[in-house]
Amino acid sequence: MRLEPLDQTQIESIVSKAVQDAVDFVDAEIAPQRIKAQRYFDNEVDIGHEDGRSKVVATKCREAVRGIKPSIHRIFLANDKAVEFVPKGAEDVALSEQATSFINYKFQQHNGYKILNDVFQDALVKKCGIAYVYYDESMKPEIFTMRNLTDEAFTALVGEDDVEVLEHEVRTSISIDEEGVEIEVPEHDVKLSRSIPHGDICIESVPPEDFFVDRNARSIEDFYVCGHSTEVRVSDILAMGFNIEDLDGLDHTEYSVVDDEAEFERRGYAIDDGEDENQSAASRKVTLTQAYMELDIEGTGIPKLYQFLCVGATYKILNFYEADSAPYAIFECDPEPHAFFGTSLVDLVIPDQDAATAMLRGVLDNVALTNNPGVQYVDGQVAVEDLMNNEIGRIIRVKQPNAVTEMTVPFTAGSTLPALQYFDQLVDNKTGVSKMAQGLNPDVLKSSTATAIAASMEGQTGQAEVIARNFAEGGMKQLFRLMLDLMVKNADGEEMMRLNGTFVPINPAAWETDMDLIVNVGIGTGRENERLAVLQQTLQVQQGIYTSYGANNGVVTLTQIRNTLADILALGGVRNADRYFMPMTPEIDHQMMMMAQQQQAMMAQAQQQQDPNAAFMQTEAMKAQTKAQVDMSKAQMDMQYKMHKLGMDDDLARDEMVQDLAVKVAEILGKYGTAVDTASIKAEQDAARPHNEQMMGM
Q1: Could you tell me the end-to-end alpha-carbon distance of the chain, in angstroms, rounded to an integer?
Q2: Count of CB atoms within 10 A of residue 615's CB?
Q3: Would residue 679 count as lying in a domain?
Q4: pLDDT score for 565
Q5: Do 562 and 690 sit in the same domain of this protein?
């Protein structure tokens, strides 16, 4: 078998078939489930009703989604840094802090809350939320005015290709030449429009009905073809640099890659694109498809990932180029193993909404019949038109007594209410959304202690925590990883950014794209209490080391102490630490260390003058200090290795290791001649761990 490069026709045939198969799979297998889920979220059901009977619908699906979203938002937005990049080594600490602050800033700058709100709801209702991350290199027009230009300056300015003259005014001024002769000099006032390169990261939420993937895909890292389609104007295609001839053969009436039914259910109304025969060609709509697929185009036997830009229902390829990865972040609340699409929260609640709706309708019908029972009458002895009158206090004309009697309807709604409560509890167990979790159960709040209430609420939020963790380890990591890669690849010089209270130059080109990524998921009040306790213990150890050994201790700096204080404030909801503590910089830390060294030198000199053995003692002290620093460096390296081995996944384990390091440091320092109360530190640490284990359910 001989490998040959693929020509344009072969490429287009392979890509078109693969995309069409993927679209057909999603339309046939996934889209009907999404449409049904959206209908149930919109308070519709598939069960029918009889004329004259109740049509009420139990809104279980919408209540479940609306009930869990506040918890999900609180979990991810409790920290101003949604994610943190972890350095591979000590030399990367500063760069990782820069990447963390800058990427989080960019995320908030691009309306991160709106993006998360959209993808979370899509995941809860339609199986998955899709965030699309790309780098926009479009030109941005800027308008500016220049005055008093000479002829030469004006000619040179308007001669530039990217400059358009909007307004122009010429006037004449009198000037004196070198010979003292008055001459008229033209001056130009001009208003210009100039196209400025405006490259920046863009994040969009893709409607799930526009996304496609092959049926054998398992994840966004393991697929044959994936992508999304959208409708654009022909003018938009031309603005991307293509020619109108590239669209020859396309008939805008023949395609509809975007699922119209799914879009209708999402919007609640049909879209009128306004197209008619009199519309200009540039204003007509066409389907633009971005497809990502691995192909061996060069015939080397090694397939590469390509991005294909296609138009129309036949997926005519406009261009293609190599890609590093598919630019999508997939959010799923309940992933299915070995499958791309998982289960949405609405999918779980749909059967319960049907059952609750049927019961609720029965209860209302029974109440209506009990309050307004039917009657039986003797034919010919009653004015029937009076019976048809439903007004309160109506008069019924009869020819004989007891010609009309009410039919007794037993009231059975009371026995049905426990069944409705059962379904409420069933939905609560499935979703984790309950009055307890929302703090709305007055009986529990009145009869329980604060500790018991906190423990109960912590237990009720288990499902929300699982969903949040799935979002964190899936879509959030993918989203910020894509942002980091784009920032590094498209870095264009330095930018100034405020970091730790001071402005520093940021150059994304220096960042490592393989940095570890941690999503800060603030799950549960108990978890926050654990972190607060650990931070407070860490602060005590930091203060003890700094007080005992000064600024030049080799373990703790003022910057690190301030960071601990800022984290404690953040857990209390106070984000602006600069309001309470002065910003710290490496320069200030260095100055403090130099001052400490000068003070030590002066004290040593004074002692040497008083004590002839002071020089020998100073030498021995320096040896001990050097040995202690070596041992502490080894301890730090050992902890970093262990933390890296753990993958930085378990915050509690990480915090305990930090405390272990502090105790180790104290032991090392005490070993070389300085008294440190290591026993009390160790005892405090051991006393805290059973509490932590209890809080973690260990």
Answers
A1: 59
A2: 12
A3: yes
A4: 84
A5: yes
Is residue 475 predicted with pLDDT exceeding 60?
Answer: yes
pLDDT at 14 over 50: yes
Non-local CB neighbours of 107 within 8 Å, separated by 6+ positions: 82, 203, 480, 483
Residues 503, 217: contact at Cβ < 8 Å? Answer: no
| Boundary of a domain, candidates 148, 181, 197 | 197
Question: Measuring CA to CA, which residue among 480, 520, 479 is closest to residue 331?
Answer: 479
What integer pLDDT is reported at residue 78 of this predicted model? 66
185 with 285, same domain? no
Domain contains 294 = yes
What burial letters (b/e) apply to 201-230, b meaning 16+ CB within 10 Å? bebebbbbbbbbbbbebeebeebebbbbbb
- What is the reported pLDDT for 439? 45
Strand arrangement, sheet containing 129-136: 200-206, 129-136, 328-331
Question: How would DSSP label each residue in 357-411?
Answer: HHHHHHHHHHHHHHHS--EEE-TTSB-HHHHT---TT----BSSTTSEEEPP---
- Residue 638 and residue 632: Cα distance in Å, rounded? 10
Residue 190 lies in a domain: yes
DSSP string, 519-577: E-----HHHHHHHHHHHHHHHHHHHHHHHHH-TT-SS--HHHHHHHHHHHHHHTT---G
Distance, in Å, from the CA atom of 389 to the CA atom of 548, rounded to the nearest integer, reads 94
pLDDT grade for 653, boundaries at 50, 70 and 90: low
- Counting DSSP H helices and E strands in the chain, the numbers are 21, 17
Contact status, residue 324 vs residue 485, Cβ threshold 8 Å: yes
> If you average pLDDT over residues 470-481, what whole number do you get?
92
Question: Can you tell me the distance from the alpha carbon of 206 to that of 118, in angstroms, rounded to the nearest whole number?
Answer: 9
Tell whether 572 and 630 lie within a shared domain.
Answer: yes
How distant, in Å, are the alpha carbons of 126, 268, 467 from that of 271?
Answer: 21, 10, 33
Radius of gyration of the chain (CA): 36
CATH of the domain at 181: 3.30.1660
Mean pLDDT check: name the lowest of 179-183, 211-215, 256-260, 563-567.
256-260
Same domain as 548, residue 686? yes
d(CA 468, CA 120) in angstroms, rounded, equals 10
| pLDDT digits 0-9 by tens, 531-586 | 778 888 888 888 888 888 777 777 888 888 888 888 887 777 666 676 777 766 66
Average model confidence (pLDDT) for the chain?
Answer: 77
Distance CA 46, CA 493 (A): 58
What is the spatial distance between Cα 264 and Cα 657, in angstroms, rounded to a whole number?
54
Count of structural domains within the chain? 3
- Which of the two residues, 136 and 692, has the higher pLDDT score? 136
Same domain, 541 and 686: yes
Same-domain status, 554 and 691: yes
Question: Does residue 646 carry a pLDDT above 60?
Answer: no
Same domain, yes or no: 550 and 681: yes
The answer to whether the beta carbons of residues 342 and 471 sit under 8 Å apart is no
Which residues form the domain of 313? 1-34+224-272+280-325
Provide the residue type at 115 as one letter: I
CA distance 691 to 689: 5
List the structure tokens of 694: 């209890």
Rounded to 5°, the CA angle 611-613-614 comes to 65
For residue 129, pLDDT beyond 50: yes
Compute the distance between CA of residue 648 and CA of residue 640 in angstroms, rounded to an integer: 10
Shared-domain flag, residues 582 and 690: yes
pTM of the model: 0.68
In a domain, 311, yes or no: yes
pLDDT at 640 over 80: no
Going by pLDDT thresholds of 50, 70 and 90, the confidence category of residue 523 is: low
Q: Is the pLDDT of residue 145 over 80?
A: yes
Q: Compute the average pLDDT of residues 343-353.
A: 92
